[in-house]
Amino acid sequence: MKKEVLVFKTNIRSKRSLRKLGPLFNNLPGIGTWHVDLADREKVLRIESSGIAPTQVIGLLRQLEFECQELM
Question: Strand ranges (DSSP E) for the chain?
């Protein structure tokens, strides 16, 4: 499958929040690497993936009560 980079604006603000995401993203098939830039004003989440739709990521983050919006 073709790899792509998904980019999102989030409200993830702390390392504690990142610890909530780790088990979710690390165990989800199709997600390679992921990173949240906590220093960025928009708390940008970048995911290298194959076969994952942006709507899936948004839904997963909303289940954990995070805001998430795809950046194009």
Answer: 4-10, 31-36, 45-49, 68-70
Domain assignments of the chain as residue spans, ordered by start: 4-70
The rounded distance, in Å, linking the Cα atoms of 30 and 65 is: 22
> Domain 4-70: which topology?
Alpha-Beta Plaits (3.30.70)
pTM value is 0.91
d(CA 29, CA 20): 17
In 3D space, the residue among 11, 66, 70 whose CA is nearest the CA of residue 43 turns out to be 11
CB-CB contact of 71 with 9 (8 Å) = yes
Give the model confidence (pLDDT) of 47-65 as tens digits. 999 989 999 999 999 999 9
